[in-house]
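Narrative of activities, Objective 1.

The group set out to show that a structural description can be obtained from nothing but a protein's sequence at a throughput compatible with the screening campaign. Below is one input-output pair from the validation batch, recorded exactly as produced.
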Amino acid sequence: MKLDINLLPKKLNDVNYFKKVEGGCEIYSYNSKFQLRNEVVVVSLPGCEIENDFCIDNKAIEMLKLLKPEEINITDKSFIIKSSKGKYTGKLINENLFQLSKENLDSYTNVNLDNLNKACNFTAKTDKKPQLAGVRVDNNGNIIATDSFTLYTYNNNHNEYTVDGFTLPVSFIQIVKSLTNETELNVYNNQNIAMVKIDNVKIYTNLISGAYPDVRKLLDTNQIEKIENTDNQEIIEKVDIASKLTSNVDDNRTIYIEFSFNKLAAYGDDTFETDINFDCGIENHIRVSNILLMQALKSINGDYDFKIRYDANRKGTMLYLTNENELCLVLGIRSN
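Output recorded for this entry:
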């Protein structure tokens, strides 16, 4: 067996099934736990001819990369690597081939990978809202992620947002990001499966099923006046200071950051107040979680504007951070 080590991607899963195909072989790499098999990485290895299919773990893959073998032998139970650096003998895994359906993956959507990866921070982290546990990509390549308390969107070339699209698991996005430095990629998809091509590697995933909420009404901020003369770096620095001064031994404890007329105040175990260029009006104020606010502040690239949407009963006050292509929304917390 001859194998070009340079064709192996940086990272593979703990099950790696070598399947014989015409002109070489393919590696089907996936998680050993069946309930976690949302993604399959398929690596094409032209010229790597094998007599029979076999399966090895990720440790054997790493030894291949380290030893740069001069000879590879497969017996009924063993995987043997020989090189000038040493000899490695590992056990074959008794595993049946697992693969996702590859049918009807002709259509694709162009997506910005950096923003797709950024959107993962705004997805739901519990199983109570499975549809919100992934990142939504609409048919125009726009990106949406929300956990009901925050919202992140990336607008692709000023295209309108649509309700039609697909929802990608965070794990899939992280695998793709780990395998390439490209910023733009095509995501091929059908109703159940998505796939991305990177050189000789294809990554497949099951899409997250279920209806994704229509957030389009939240995205129209043209009628909301922006808060003038804000110093974004000053806001980041003072919110960070406020978070530290009011911190608790429990790092996940929520600290409330309140913006009022050119004032910032923080409430936790202690209180912190400071002047700040943030003119939201003498009669207005908004209180938000420091954790969600810092996440939003650090997510949008370049310059951005602050906007606040109030309602008459203060039940749905929202803080917006917007620039030409990106939008972050943080839902306000009702104060007593």
